[in-house]
Amino acid sequence: MVTRAGDQPRRPGAALAAALCAAAAEHSEAHPVEKLRHKELDDAARTERSAVPLAIRRLEQQLEVERRQMERKLEKLEKRVEEVACTSAASGRWAELQGHVDGLADAVQSLIRGQLPQGSPPPNASEATGNRVGTDTAVWKRFDILEVKLQQMEESRGKFIDLQSQSDKVTAQVADLDSKLLQLVGRLAQVERGAPHVSEHTSQVLGPSLQGIHEAMEQLALRVQHVEDPQEPSGLAETCQQVCVQMDLLRNEVEEHTSMLEDQVAELDARMQTFGSEIQDLVQTQEARLQVDSVGERALRLALRAQRAVNAQDFSEDAREMREELTEMSEDLTSLWQRVQSSELGLDSMAEAVGRICEELSQLKSRRSVVTQPASGSPASSRLGEALRGGRDRDSIEADPSALSFLHRAS
């Protein structure tokens, strides 16, 4: 607690009280006539013993009225200080508070000078001194309260500075989010521009490749139909055995190629399904772009709210709302970033799959060029091939004159 002058601990407002006392002393020294007049009035009051009690009662009533008025003024001043601390800026608050303190100092100085309202009789010196001491005590208490309010004002000013720094950080975060949004929009545009080229390239590559696969199957079927001619007519059985062995080899090779082609066709179907899923990912990417646009609008709204928060009155509510908006925006941007990365990974895997399909098709073409195409296409050779494919034995082949003539001509 702050004490008056003369006590061991010095009050925080002692300097102001000393200044007020010095001003009162200067005023009393500058106006000796008033002191003489007050002295004469005191002498007159002593002579008029009968009027002293009435004057004392009037003086007490007047002092009580003035005390109540002063208390009301001080309460209004405290309320005003609280309103200024809550609504105005730090610099404006400080200036307004200084103005109120100056007004209070003037009021206290007027009380110290002992000015009385017009029409009231002069009080007794001892009573006036006691009332003045009580008024000084009340004023000192009010000064203590005002000093506490000043400390609270300083704390609120520090909070305002902290909030301003937080608003600057929020503005920097909004700028970073804007740059990330621009990067996302650019990458989405690149993905959209690259998707039609990938589909056209796939159609251009897979169309001829599938046609080449069908041609290879037809050529393999023709090769199965045609067999090599026997060397000697006398070794018909050995020739037929060799032909059967070659047919078995060809059949095995055809089955291997067929199974390989079926596996490749199944893999191609799976890759086409994967490509369809990648197209769906592109659609989702388009939706993500729309969400990015919505996030951009939210970022603009957040920037406007941040600007309002700097100039607004209730800083804590705006700061909390901005933090919530930033949290939601960071979550949305994280999900969008993950979706864009998954779309890019899907496109990379699709490009790798298309490259592998092209390599396998080139290998199939090279294998097809290695396979020899028979030149014979006579009806006898076709009948011999049909007999061999049908599993006819040696007797049935020897019983067929056209097959025997074909074997003799071949030898």
What does the secondary structure layout of this molecule look like, with pairings?
Elements (H helix, E strand, L loop, with lengths): L13 H17 L1 H16 L4 H36 L2 H24 L11 H101 L10 H76 L3 H56 L8 H12 L3 H6 L1 H10 L1
Helix pairs in contact: 1-4, 3-4, 3-5, 4-5, 5-6, 5-7, 6-7, 8-10
Descriptive report:
The chain has 411 residues and is mostly helical. It has two domains: 14-162, no CATH class; 168-375, Butyryl-CoA Dehydrogenase, subunit A, domain 3 (Up-down Bundle), CATH 1.20.140. It has ten helices and no strands. The longest helix is centred in the middle third of the chain and has 101 residues, at 125-225. It is rod-shaped and about 170 Å long. The termini are far apart.
- Counting DSSP H or I runs of 4 or more residues, the number of helices is 10
Shape: rod-shaped
CATH third-level topology of the largest domain: Butyryl-CoA Dehydrogenase, subunit A, domain 3
Radius of gyration: 54 Å
Give the name of the CATH architecture of the largest domain: Up-down Bundle
Beta-strand fraction estimate? under 5%
- Uncertain segments: 1-10, 115-123, 227-233, 372-381, 387-399, 406-411
Kindly name the structural category: mainly alpha
**Which CATH C-level class of the largest domain is it?**
Mainly Alpha
| Total discrete domains | 2
How do the helices and strands follow one another from N- to C-terminus?
HHHHHHHHHH
Give the proportion of residues in helices: over 70%
